[in-house]
Amino acid sequence: MLRELNIRHLSLPLNAPFRISRGVKHAAEVVTVELRQGDRIGRGESVPYPRYRESVASVLDEMESLREDLCAGMGRDELQARLTPGAARNALDAALWDLEAKLTGVPVWAGLARPPRAPVTTALTVSLDTPQAMEQAAARIAGARLIKIKVDADDPAARIEAVRRAAPAAKLIVDPNESWTMDILHDLQPVLERAAVDLVEQPLPAAADVDLRGFSSRIPICADEACHTAADLPRLLERYQAINIKLDKTGGLTEAWRLLRAARDSGFRIMVGCMVGSSLGIAPALEVAREAEFIDLDGPLWLANDHAGGVRLQDGLLAPPAPGFWGE
């Protein structure tokens, strides 16, 4: 049976500015996919990311290049071979998983031989700002089990200490988004230790992370921008202790699941993260998140308006979408 493909770009306003070392955003620019077969529709979403030389236009072009084959019945395995890892493949991969679940009646979680979805502990993010503003933001979420702190090279110690003062019981992830040097990382070791930071995410530029070889960090270091697919793992072994799996980097749940298994076999600790987007982009990531030690899926919580039936924060946990939202 022939399929119908609908691709759209949406600009989703945020409820507050989201600042990291690379800049600030006020809206999430997402690309959504609907793949219809008969009366069943599979959906997916991705976030084109300029850091990876992606734009909304480039992602739309990649998807359109496969329109004829997707409508003729292309599956996930062929998709992996036809598109490189990234946002375009992610949204299409998600739509194919969702469509398969709706056509067969077998939920994605069952197909992966996992139990039904359940609420998970997600990091809540304190975006980059003055130490005072970050302390106030942390105070508003002081009861969170896990907080992620966005910093840059400008006095990160003051920002980390400010958040720790406001949230003395939370586990902490510090994320410089590639903005530190080796000297900063070395000098901050006592600060990170005093603040009881649990993880430092991608402190150095991915292209300069060779300097991490042989460095004995007091806090585990997690590869984010440096880790996209399972093929990256051998290079990361002597540099990082954890990896951050994001579906927009892996090009979808299909490769993310492969990366998860390969990373575990290699001894890496597992984090699952996201770009700032809606619950439609987060739903497939929850299938991997249940296997992770650190979960950072608060992207939809930054939106002024998310999808009805999407994820929600409930008693400090991220509750999964309503039944039928995606993947079942």
Q: What are the salient characteristics of this protein?
A:
single chain, 8-stranded parallel beta sheet, 13 strands, 23% strand, 3-stranded antiparallel beta sheet, Enolase-like, domain 1
Characterise this structure.
The chain has 13 helices and 13 strands. With 328 residues, it is an alpha/beta fold. It folds into 2 domains: 4-106, Enolase-like, N-terminal domain (Enolase-like, domain 1, 2-Layer Sandwich); 124-319, TIM Barrel. The strands form 3 sheets. An 8-stranded parallel β-sheet has the order 4-5-6-7-8-9-10-11. Strands 1-2-3 form a 3-stranded antiparallel β-sheet. Strands 12-13 form a two-stranded antiparallel sheet. Helix 10 (233-236) links the parallel strand 8 (221-223) and strand 9. It is globular, with a radius of gyration of 19 Å. It starts with a strand and ends in a 9-residue tail after the last strand. The mean pLDDT is 97.
Instruction: Note the run of SSEs as H and E.
Output: EEEHHHHHEHEHEHHEEHEHHEHEEE
Category by helix and strand content: alpha/beta
Query: What is the end-to-end distance?
Result: 21 Å
Topology, number of strands: 13
Describe the structure concisely.
The protein is an alpha/beta fold and 328 residues long. It has helices at residues 56-64, 67-72, 76-82, 87-104, 108-111, 131-140, 156-166, 182-187, 189-194, 233-236, 247-250, 253-265, 279-289, and strands at 4-20, 23-37, 40-46, 124-126, 146-150, 171-175, 199-201, 221-223, 242-245, 269-272, 294-295, 312-314, 317-319.
Layout of helices and strands:
Elements: E1 4-20, E2 23-37, E3 40-46, H1 56-64, H2 67-72, H3 76-82, H4 87-104, H5 108-111, E4 124-126, H6 131-140, E5 146-150, H7 156-166, E6 171-175, H8 182-187, H9 189-194, E7 199-201, E8 221-223, H10 233-236, E9 242-245, H11 247-250, H12 253-265, E10 269-272, H13 279-289, E11 294-295, E12 312-314, E13 317-319
Parallel strand pairs: 4-5, 5-6, 6-7, 7-8, 8-9, 9-10, 10-11
Antiparallel strand pairs: 1-2, 2-3, 12-13
